Amino acid sequence: MFWKIVVVLLIGFLAWAYQALCPPSPRICGSRGGPVVEAPRIKLRDGRHLAYKELGVPKERAKYKIILSHAFGSSRHEVSIATSEVVEKLGIHFVCFDRPGYGQSDPNPKRTIKSTALDIEELADQLELGSKFYIIGISMGGQVLWGCLKYIPHRLAGAALIAPVVNYWWSGFPSNLSTEVYNQQFVADQWALRVAHHAPWLLYWWNTQKWFPSSSVEAERPNITAPDLKVLSKVAHRLNTREYATQQGIYESLHRDMKVAFGKWEFSPMDLDNSFSDGQGSVHLWHGIEDGIVPVTLQRYIVQKLPWIKYHELPDAGHLFIYGDSSIQDEVLNSLLTE
Ligand SMILES: *[C@@H]1O[C@H](CO)[C@@H](O)[C@H](O)[C@H]1NC(C)=O
Ligand SMILES: *[C@@H]1O[C@H](CO)[C@@H](O)[C@H](O)[C@H]1NC(C)=O
């Protein structure tokens, strides 16, 4: 009798654990009961769709074509930089896309840094952006750019990384430095990253359970510094597109993003070679000294190892500077396109 009860309890526990660990299936756009498709989309080689949005001057008339890779919990609607005054002056056409699993782009359960770089190449080809194009990546979207520099460098005319998120496990960091900086984060974030890196299968449960605090960024309580508060007081309403961004479910958007970003990479950005050694194009990186989310010390270390990156360090800037003052948006576009 006793053993029967134990077995029944064990089966019950396993069933519960299985349910708690397994994310629900995503609500695919365009499927029955799923969100409707109203954005323009391309169909990729493997059958997935990628939703995008075009802005700036029409493609036919544009001198420069830029693909934008959005931040964590954001979407193709994150286009502050496309409202800069220099867009018309320089003749820039923008394509912003929902990264896989976000907004109206189909999830990619096999998503990697490489797969997203190849998605970008296909997007550029199907939209006929030409043999070379520019890319700008913001925060988590900046990681995608390291993938482009690694896997499709021959397609790039230039790249701008805006406060790109760092993976503490990239090889090349002195371990005393990465450990020191890692330990300065909120304890909840240390755990969320540890789970994403060491036990990605646990991440859905970790991020949805209520016993321990989960990632501060996912919970929308990140380490906001004074300059970021200033930006937020102006544009918080515009930045809030999370509902659209995660409409197919938080797992294939937010959690998949964390798994890829903080998981095990095939390469370290610090091992990359300069893809523009012929001087035709450049890579820029902007970072705020008061960034409370991505520590400036690690970014400094990366650019010191990659002297071909043009590094712009901004005093009095936090993580969100790109959404604030339009003069920084102008500066990014001018440096990327005309320097
Ligand atoms: C890490 O160790 C190196 C070499 O021992 C040292 O030069 C450096 O200052 C240390 N960095 C930190 C952040 O402790
Ligand atoms: C918050 O950001 C500040 C400024 O970058 C940094 O000094 C501090 O260590 C950060 N705190 C946490 C808990 O991440």
Automatic annotation (TrEMBL):
InterPro entries: AB_hydrolase_1, AB_hydrolase_fold. GO terms for molecular function: hydrolase activity. Keywords: Signal. Residues 66-322 form the AB hydrolase-1 domain. Residues 1-17 form the signal peptide. This is AB hydrolase-1 domain-containing protein. It comes from Buddleja alternifolia.
